[in-house]
Amino acid sequence: MSTTRKHTALPKAQILIEALPWLTRHHGKTVVIKFGGNAMIDEELKAAFAQDVVFLRHAGLRPVVVHGGGPQISAQLDKQGLVSEFKAGLRVTTPEAMDVVRMVLAGQVQRELVGLLNQHGPFAVGMTGEDAHTITATKHRPRIEGELVDIGRVGEITRIDTGAIEALLDNGRIPVVSSIARSEDDGHVYNVNADTAAAALAAALGAETLMVLTDVEGLYEDWPHSDEVISRLTAGELEKLLPELSSGMVPKMEGCLHAVRNGVTTARVIDGRVQHSILLEIFTDEGIGTMVVPDAQGES
Ligand SMILES: Nc1ncnc2c1ncn2[C@@H]1O[C@H](COP(=O)(O)OP(=O)(O)O)[C@@H](O)[C@H]1O
Ligand SMILES: CC(=O)N[C@@H](CCC(=O)OP(=O)(O)O)C(=O)O
Fold first, then answer.
1. Could you tell me if the CB of 73 is within 6 A of ligand 2?
2. C-beta 90 within 6 A of ligand 2
3. For the domain bounded by 26-293, which CATH number is listed?
4. Where does substrate bind (predicted)?
5. 218 CB under 6 A from ligand 2?
6. Beta pairing partners, 155
7. Which of 165, 170, 173 lies closest to 122 in space, CA to CA?
8. Residue 132 Cα, ligand 1 centroid: separation in angstroms?
């Protein structure tokens, strides 16, 4: 006869134990989480996001948050009567618009995320890519229909210095990074797409995972005609698909490709509208969204 006694709260212990293999696997690993402006509109979701990130920190992972704020920037530009225009998926950024981008990202969105995270303890430290030379960029001139175009103060990342972020992580903090770069060419700053910044940081930090939270379920196979999500694809498969992608998915998937081609083990695009999507992704089998993995050896 068994002498095992079962406490009524045993199911709770079972849930915790189910997470043990994932806790073991991810312990000490760096996870870069990109929180998009579109996933940032709901108060409950923002609070759940902050809980998840702090949970990761307590579980022994090293989370780094990179945030966007496209809709928030557009709203402020509108308020100030400045035009908001995108070319090749990037905001045309005049010097006046750059002031607004910097004010909204570093002064508003980043402050709000830092505040939410710090409701759980003294963890979050906000910074922009300007700080300690974290992100350096030069002027980006995208090609549209074969022609190089000038879209103002939009930066192309040339260098990443991970020193400040590593120091914060080693100190048990959670860096919260706004996607603004210092300039390689002059004393000014550049506006960088937040997906691109997150991917570049993930690669430079040798992160295990890049997780991009957005406002759709993942990468749709035949957007906008169907909502069939591609659940897993290799770098080579993604590379072939890139020319067919449009709008906001372009920098996200280019970023995922860059990350897995530069040492990141998995890059995932997940639905930021699902509460606790980060925990579901890291600690359970019920991962959601699209996962990009490096090519198997010998494959390209
Ligand atoms: N193949 C695709 N699958 C999913 N979404 C796509 C696809 N192609 C374009 N999109 C668009 O990309 C958007 C996400 O990008 P974006 O608006 O930049 O979000 P975020 O603010 O999260 O960075 C989706 O809401 C959708 O409208
Ligand atoms: C050059 C460029 O387009 N920069 C973006 C930076 C913010 C961002 O990327 O925000 P989301 O992640 O919410 O889209 C912009 O100005 O909107």
1. yes
2. yes
3. 3.40.1160.10
4. 69-70, 91, 191
5. no
6. 139
7. 173
8. 32
